[in-house]
Amino acid sequence: MAEALRVGIAGLGTVGASVGRVLRDKAVELTRQCGRDVIVTAVSARDHKRDRGVDLSSAKWFDDPVKMAQTAEIDVFVELIGGDEGPARSSVKTALEAGRHVVTANKALLAKHGVALAEIAEKKGVLLNYEAAVAGGIPVIKTMREAMAGNSVTRVFGILNGTCNYILTRMEAEGISFDACLKDAQRLGYAEADPTFDIEGHDTAHKLSILTSLAFGTRIAANDIYMEGISNITQADIRAAADLGYRIKLLGVAQRTESGIEQRVHPTMVPTASVIAQVHGVTNAVAIETDILGELLLSGPGAGGNATASAVIGDIADIAKSRPGFQHGPVFGRPAKELKPYKKAQMRSHAGGYFIRLTVHDRIGVFAAIAKRMADNDISLESIVQHAVNGEAAAQKTVILVTHETTEAAVRKAVDGITKDGHLTDKPQVIRIERAG
Ligand SMILES: NC(=O)c1ccc[n+]([C@@H]2O[C@H](COP(=O)([O-])OP(=O)(O)OC[C@H]3O[C@@H](n4cnc5c(N)ncnc54)[C@H](OP(=O)(O)O)[C@@H]3O)[C@@H](O)[C@H]2O)c1
């Protein structure tokens, strides 16, 4: 049998401890599958004394993950610390430069430094595997990079953040407010104490930027993503969406258009009957549309110790199975140096259907004024309905418009016009509608 693959795990938190546990519990099975033993020979975390729920005492302890990345006692450096700078970045860079394979679950690091790290890995002839960095346990990276060779992707979109999907699912199912759902998500450990990163779309954007690079062969451009979170979504939106046959999801969408690539993260209305609309709770899903395959939808657990460990261990097993001297495939599907610059499509040129919810004074002429603003901007309406707020006697009305395909620029101009007309009593709500099968 070939020599054992020696693994060093940096970070023994939710994911790292699960990886350590599964590597021990499934050692016999992994040896059978990989044709060699896979053993943890080194570990690093901050607190040496903390009980990790798994006995890793046979592995050498390192206070400093960079030192562990340099040691000749490991073949694979597994980075499960997190963060786009600091010890995660320096240890991964060190490991690659020292000719060690790297496995990471760190989307923030890849979104910022992925291309530079890929260049080092490719120069050194080692693997940089990151299946767990996007959609946790769902094998979307391998699917896009390996199983879809020859396909040209036209659009990739998905539910990439379990916290947001959990909140939106409960808002719809139980009729409770965003704030109440967020508090529950925090209590159950689905949301961080500071939830901004999740609910304002940053986490989804990081993952999307990696998928965009794989889909379109472009350099990662995580800072060039149009982003709106879910904190402004109200029960009124959820109910109106349901009445119209839609469900609201926070989607990350990357799409090839005539003017470039659109990368956008925002609350989106998808038809209730579509497959992606059936993805509930903390589950993630990724839809990939290509010229040869058509549409593929992958869904499953997007986070959690075991689900994420499953993807990390799949990456480690790929390294264990790789043959010495065999040329590894490029990290982002094309050699990092050949990734094209990202050509951004302006959000103003985005074309699609829109849901617009306006709260207006209940007075004569308002309805006609709104319709005129729409017509002036060449926006054709699929429906326009008006109903009272808080009972028929109220001085306010809600007007809900659904447009046929139009542009973002036209919608913004029309809504700005309506706002200037002075008919609104509250901030207008605009939610994009996404075609989904
Ligand atoms: N949790 C998930 O469901 C999930 C899903 C997908 C991807 N990920 C990614 O996986 C990575 C790890 O996430 P996690 O949830 O497991 O994080 P976590 O529970 O916070 O664990 C982080 C670990 O890193 C260690 N650490 C921090 N600074 C260190 C340093 N300077 N030197 C050595 N070790 C250090 C910590 O040590 P101590 O324990 O001693 O403090 C801890 O064990 C992140 O990149 C995250 O984005 C997580």
TrEMBL record:
<feature type="binding site">
    <location>
        <position position="107"/>
    </location>
    <ligand>
        <name>NADPH</name>
    </ligand>
</feature>
<keyword id="KW-0028">Amino-acid biosynthesis</keyword>
<keyword id="KW-0521">NADP</keyword>
<dbReference type="GO" id="GO:0009086">
    <property type="term" value="P:methionine biosynthetic process"/>
</dbReference>
<dbReference type="Pfam" id="PF03447">
    <property type="entry name" value="NAD_binding_3"/>
</dbReference>
<dbReference type="InterPro" id="IPR005106">
    <property type="entry name" value="Asp/hSer_DH_NAD-bd"/>
</dbReference>
<dbReference type="GO" id="GO:0050661">
    <property type="term" value="F:NADP binding"/>
</dbReference>
<dbReference type="Pfam" id="PF01842">
    <property type="entry name" value="ACT"/>
</dbReference>
<dbReference type="GO" id="GO:0009088">
    <property type="term" value="P:threonine biosynthetic process"/>
</dbReference>
<dbReference type="GO" id="GO:0004412">
    <property type="term" value="F:homoserine dehydrogenase activity"/>
</dbReference>
<feature type="domain" description="ACT">
    <location>
        <begin position="355"/>
        <end position="437"/>
    </location>
</feature>
<keyword id="KW-0791">Threonine biosynthesis</keyword>
<feature type="active site" description="Proton donor">
    <location>
        <position position="207"/>
    </location>
</feature>
<keyword id="KW-0560">Oxidoreductase</keyword>
<dbReference type="InterPro" id="IPR045865">
    <property type="entry name" value="ACT-like_dom_sf"/>
</dbReference>
<dbReference type="InterPro" id="IPR036291">
    <property type="entry name" value="NAD(P)-bd_dom_sf"/>
</dbReference>
<dbReference type="InterPro" id="IPR001342">
    <property type="entry name" value="HDH_cat"/>
</dbReference>
<dbReference type="InterPro" id="IPR016204">
    <property type="entry name" value="HDH"/>
</dbReference>
<dbReference type="InterPro" id="IPR002912">
    <property type="entry name" value="ACT_dom"/>
</dbReference>
<feature type="binding site">
    <location>
        <begin position="10"/>
        <end position="17"/>
    </location>
    <ligand>
        <name>NADP(+)</name>
    </ligand>
</feature>
<comment type="pathway">
    <text>Amino-acid biosynthesis; L-methionine biosynthesis via de novo pathway; L-homoserine from L-aspartate: step 3/3.</text>
</comment>
<dbReference type="InterPro" id="IPR019811">
    <property type="entry name" value="HDH_CS"/>
</dbReference>
<feature type="binding site">
    <location>
        <position position="192"/>
    </location>
    <ligand>
        <name>L-homoserine</name>
    </ligand>
</feature>
<keyword id="KW-0486">Methionine biosynthesis</keyword>
<protein>
    <recommendedName>
        <fullName>Homoserine dehydrogenase</fullName>
        <ecNumber>1.1.1.3</ecNumber>
    </recommendedName>
</protein>
<comment type="similarity">
    <text>Belongs to the homoserine dehydrogenase family.</text>
</comment>
<dbReference type="Pfam" id="PF00742">
    <property type="entry name" value="Homoserine_dh"/>
</dbReference>
<comment type="pathway">
    <text>Amino-acid biosynthesis; L-threonine biosynthesis; L-threonine from L-aspartate: step 3/5.</text>
</comment>
